[in-house]
Design a protein that fits this description.
This protein has 145 residues and is an alpha+beta fold. It is 30% helix and 40% strand. The chain is globular. The two termini are 28 Å apart.
Length: 145
């Protein structure tokens, strides 16, 4: 597995993973706009030339928001999600970011377990945050310093 920074050539593969993994996926245009966004940092996990997963974040001042994390169903339970988050955390620490926050569906037990194993802590809840289906989001935070 190779973890590298996302580029424009990855956009269609990431959009396909969005459609596979989420009920309200980002469009190709939205993903492509992240490549040029100076506040954003996205990583791709590649296995044998295939985009197996990705993580995207956006940093404002000294805090970052993990916007998206997805791993292809064909590559789950192989440590790819964990490796992506760890690589993102390493990059953010190197760039003096002090905290990483994220929202996760209350029903997404595998993701919640992953995040908690990586040191994220519950700091709040956003009622009815998600659509398709309507669902609350847990807000998790990891201190990076």
């Amino acid at each position: 597995m190779i973890i590298r920074k996302m580029n424009l050539g990855d956009v269609s593969a990431i959009a396909e993973l969005e459609r596979l993994c989420f009920s309200d996926p980002w469009s190709e245009n939205s993903i492509a706009s992240e490549v040029a966004n100076p506040l954003s940092y996205w990583l791709v996990a590649e296995v044998d030339g295939v985009v197996a997963g990705y993580v995207g974040s956006q940093t404002v001042l000294d805090a970052s928001d993990m916007m998206n994390l997805a791993v292809s169903p064909d590559y789950r339970r192989q440590g790819i999600g964990q490796a992506l988050v760890e690589a993102l955390v390493e990059y953010l620490r190197e760039n003096k970011v002090i905290a990483l926050l994220l929202e996760v569906r209350v029903s997404n037990a595998p993701a919640i377990a992953l995040y908690k194993s990586l040191g994220f802590e519950l700091v709040g809840c956003r009622p009815k945050y998600y659509h398709n289906p309507r669902e609350d989001a847990l807000i998790l935070r990891k201190e990076l310093i």
